[in-house]
Specification:
By secondary structure, the chain is an alpha+beta fold. It has helices at residues 16-21, 36-43, 91-102, 131-152; strands at 13-14, 22-32, 47-48, 53-57, 60-64, 67-68, 85-88, 106-113, 120-128. A seven-stranded antiparallel β-sheet has the order 1-8-9-2-7-5-4. A two-stranded antiparallel sheet has the order 3-6. The longest helix has 22 residues, at 131-152. The relative contact order is 0.22.
Length: 153
């Protein structure tokens, strides 16, 4: 039970496509600047990270294209659902991310963490996979399924 007597439920909001499209490297947890309605919607699990990415503007990190949908009793305008949101991190973390980004890596959001008092975002430094890498992963996955199927029979 939390301080207000309401049991907190964990809602996992994942970017499942990120592991398929990118080779993920170093993972960091950063804060995210939200409005009250956005916070309530995310705690109810009404968010989506598919197609979202992190960019750098004026030495600050911004989450772009993440969707937070309204739920019953929680109004969010149409333009407010996909607005850019500022990410909160320490200055030295931001500068290290900027140098890695200049080296050719991409900053990819992986998961929104809604447990605890604050809502956090897991981001990772990633390198994009080529299409043949993706085909290779699918082929290995299919081979493993076939092996598992034969082992059961």
């Amino acid at each position: 039970m939390s301080a207000r007597g309401v049991k907190s439920q964990t809602k996992r909001i994942l970017n499942r496509r990120a592991r398929f499209d990118y080779e993920l490297g170093e993972v960091k947890v950063v804060g995210i600047q939200l409005t009250g309605a956005e916070t309530k919607s995310l705690r109810l699990g009404h968010g989506q990270l598919q197609g979202a990415y992190v960019t750098v503007k004026d030495n600050e990190l911004w989450l772009v294209n993440a969707t937070i949908s309204p739920s019953s009793g929680v109004p969010i305008t149409e333009s407010g659902q996909t607005r850019s949101r500022k990410l909160l991190a320490k200055r030295n973390e931001i500068s290290s991310l900027i140098t890695q980004k200049k080296a050719g890596l991409t900053i990819v959001p992986i998961e929104l963490l809604t447990t605890g008092r604050f809502i956090k975002l897991k981001i990772a430094m990633a390198r994009g996979k080529k299409s043949w890498d993706k085909r290779e992963v699918l082929k290995k996955r299919q081979q493993q399924r076939d092996i598992d199927r034969e082992a059961r029979n």
